Amino acid sequence: MMMQQKLISKSLFTATLLASITLAGCSKPAEKSEATQPETKAAAPSGDTIKVGILHSLSGTMAISETSLKDTALMAINEINANGGVLGKKLEAVVVDPASDWPLFAERARQLITQDKVAVIFGAWTSVSRKSVLPVVEELNGLMFYPVQYEGQEQSKNIFYTGAAPNQQAIPAVEYLMSEEGGNAERFVLLGTDYVYPRTTNKILRAFLKSKGIAESDIMEEYTPFGHSNYQTIVGNVKKFAAGKKTAVISTINGDSNVPFYRELGNQGIKASDIPVMAFSVGEEELRGIDTKPLVGHLAAWNYFMTAKNPANTQFTDKYKKFAVEYKLPNAAKVVTNDPMEATYVGINMWKQAVEKAGSTEVDKVREAMAGQTFAAPSGYTLKMDETNHHLHKPVMIGEIRGDGQFDIVYKTPTAIKAEPWSPYIPK
User: Fold this and answer.
1) In sequence order, what are the beta bridge partners of 3?
2) What is the domain partition of the chain in residue ranges?
3) Which end of the chain has fewer CB within 10 Å, C or N?
4) Which of 11, 3, 158, 138 is nearest to 74 (CA)?
5) Closest C-alpha to 200, from 127, 283, 270
């Protein structure tokens, strides 16, 4: 049986494999934990709350990135509950830790839908974890909001994609590197973690580069496993490849491998002025534990940066800082916000709006009500859920790493861009 108790902050970050953390509709989260296997019988739905699933790795190689998304979700739920909840009911978050184990994402998603009876799931980071969940939510007609950029080539009626498709991040980033402003790159290193997102994205980018006249000999492609820590040889090979032509690195390295990769760049003295690195999975959270002074000028492409200057972002960052202090999150005084956190926040609020429009949490009704939903996002743009393809219209931003681990925004689109779930550069 689950036991309710007052939140103990550290437990949110030391959740065991099967831990479940519940946020009740009160001023502070309440915690439920389970030390044993989940009950096999279906849990009775709560009559006075709406259960919301939070499916993020709080341990393992992806915890460095995903833990903050769980915290953002809890903050958003707290905020919604403080403003009266949804349909007159408080939201109750059920947090599970798949521990960076991709098959376990499917198991935990099934648990959330069939046992915990959640109305919606917010979660996953990697495409391999999303693809693990995909058949489960389609089989059970569940609903998941996915908050991170991905490789495209997918469109499910049971998933809303609140991160970027390739045309909202990867393609514009490479176009920037090829431009005069971005350094006129002529040679490209496609360096990623070995799973579906980097490989598919790089397949798209390789075709795009060839369409722009880049020769096969001017493209280097290499992958490393999750959790890889020794980048000495790879970075040395990048230096050799870059000899003679202006070269840029496109990094789809994910999770905690970013730390040793960026450290090795610094160790080998690779400056942005020599070989700029454009990252797609490195934001403020990943840079927080790195000495960023040797990395000044390297780039990242996202749809949001913490340094975006607008009233909505001021409110968002202030709220998160207060939440971190109140719940004694690790490094509470130095917490940062990033793109997937913003996407999480937008997704939860859009779902709330859709539920209220539908007058129900029933998946089919919410799905219909999501079409065309808008939200004034911390990015400073009003984002819209496309009426036909389950993807957000999002701005493109490119930032340069600063010495303090934040980003100077050097490029942004004037308006939000409609997503292309299916890339025109590779077969559907």
Assistant:
1) 33
2) 3-164+310-393, 167-307+396-412
3) N
4) 11
5) 127
Give the span between the Cα atoms of 403 and 249, in whole angstroms. 20
The predicted-structure confidence for 288-310, as pLDDT tens digits, reads as follows 878 898 899 999 999 999 999 99
Buried b (16+ CB within 10 A) or exposed e, 334-363: ebbbbbbbbbbbbbbbbbbbbbebbeebeb
Cβ-Cβ contacts under 8 Å for 84 (sequence gap 6 or more): none
* pTM (2 d.p.): 0.88
Distance spanning both ends of the chain, measured CA to CA: 47
- Going from the C-alpha of 202 to that of each of 196, 278, 391, 399, 425, the distances in angstroms are 10, 13, 21, 21, 11
Which pLDDT does position 294 carry in this prediction? 87
Same fold, 3-164+310-393 and 167-307+396-412: yes
> 3-164+310-393 in CATH: which number?
3.40.50.2300
Within 10 angstroms of residue 386's Cβ, the number of other Cβ atoms is 18
pLDDT, one tens digit per residue, over 339-382 is: 999 999 999 999 999 999 999 999 999 999 999 999 999 999 99
Architecture of domain 167-307+396-412: 3-Layer(aba) Sandwich (3.40)
What's the distance, CA 24 to chain centroid?
25
* Spatial distance between the Cα atoms of 135 and 114, rounded to a whole number of angstroms: 14
